[in-house]
Amino acid sequence: MFGFKFLGKTHVPHNKSTADMAPVRMTSLKEVLLPMAQHIGAPATPIVKVGDEVKVGQLIAEPAGYVSSPIYASVSGKVVKLDTYLRPDGKSVPAIRIESDGLMTVQDGITPPTVDSLDSLIEAVRSSGLVGLGGAGFPTSVKLDAVKNGGIHTIIVNGAECEPYITSDTRTMLDQSELIYDGISLLEKYIPSVERFIFGIESNKPECIKEMVRIFQDNPKVSVMPLPSLYPQGAEKVLIYNTTKLVVPEGKLPADVGVLVINVTSLATLADYVMTGMPLVEKCITVDGSAVKEPKNIIAPIGASISEILEFAGGLKEDAGKILFGGPMMGIAACSLDEPISKTTNAITVLNVKDATEREATACIHCGRCVEACPIGLNPTAFSKALNYGTEEKMARLEEYRVNLCMECGCCSFVCPASRPLVQNNRLGKTALREYNAHKASLK
């Protein structure tokens, strides 16, 4: 399964047209909608009510469990509704709608946390609302908590940013290198077991590589590793293998092989909170795509709607065929322009009708390109066939073919000459197997 020199063999268009564009800040907007589930784990619990006046950085929802994360007001204004938000995945979650007063007044009493130990660092990270900003939104405090079990010898900083169009992490590396330096210093000080820090950065970002080398030139524990621009270089298990040659076994976490992975923007955000006490209330996102009139990087309040962000970006130059949270490979299609960005949004990609139109799927020609493109050697056509069997055989085959290893990177669909919905079938297979196993467990 791991027979390649580098995992990931797919060449996707880079389209990094905004890499040289420093982000511009949205200074005013009408309202924000803040879903209580912007992370993996239990949704946060609202602690405000309709009519309450709130300010930037004010706690409005508390974490509802160990794997959960607090939510803070990203604008100043009034709570106008305790709402419900239908996410793109079809799940409804509680949400808080705040009407902005346009002032962006900061909450009184925001001060840096006291950090003098690993426990206090983890508590600070938990209080900041920080989750994995480059992926699924796993609470960073939970990830750091695994360090207390010992055995973490390597921290990998993910600066790959392999999706087409997206350059928000690139701007972090170029504009906030001092914060990245401070973040490494914090981890180095409070996690003394770590022997090395590795920055994994795709080679199509030479300025980022140069800046990280410069900023860490006097720290022998830190190395900067240029990686081939092969998709999906930024996927966690792929990145771990390509930087360390360590394999994370099926069903295991990076910590099980002594590794912790943190996104480069998450690292900078951690350092910023420790320095200022301002929790996670805004995100740098890339707004680009073939339908966008003025592509740019924007610092937007979390909860801002797609429509207001696109308006700030100059609008569209032609009709939109598809609007995505994220990039064209792993992005999730938005159902409405009223949908808000969340903590995990790193881009809004708007494709024109031509680029968004999918070719009609035809019969599989058994060319094997999907198997060759899969970074971990899975067989997507086998998953598609398994979906046609009866329940018991379907589940047995999905398990045998290891569908749960699929990271949904989209390489299989990208290279398929028959335009078959392979990654979508993989998702269906994973969901079916998860629900089946949950049902079996409930019967015991």
Describe this structure in words.
Among the domains are: 159 residues, Rossmann fold; 75 residues, no CATH class. Helix content is 30%, strand content 19%. The chain contains 14 helices and 17 strands. Strand 7 and strand 8 form a beta hairpin.
Outline the fold blueprint.
Blueprint: E1 24-25, E2 31-35, E3 45-46, E4 53-54, E5 59-62, E6 71-72, E7 77-86, E8 92-100, H1 118-128, H2 140-145, E9 154-158, H3 168-175, H4 177-190, E10 196-202, H5 206-215, E11 222-227, H6 236-244, E12 259-263, H7 264-276, E13 282-288, E14 296-301, H8 306-312, E15 320-325, E16 332-333, E17 347-352, H9 353-356, H10 369-373, H11 380-386, H12 391-400, H13 411-415, H14 422-443
Parallel strand pairs: 1-14, 9-10, 9-12, 10-11, 13-17
Antiparallel strand pairs: 2-8, 3-5, 4-7, 5-6, 7-8, 13-14, 15-16, 15-17
Helix pairs in contact: 4-7, 11-14
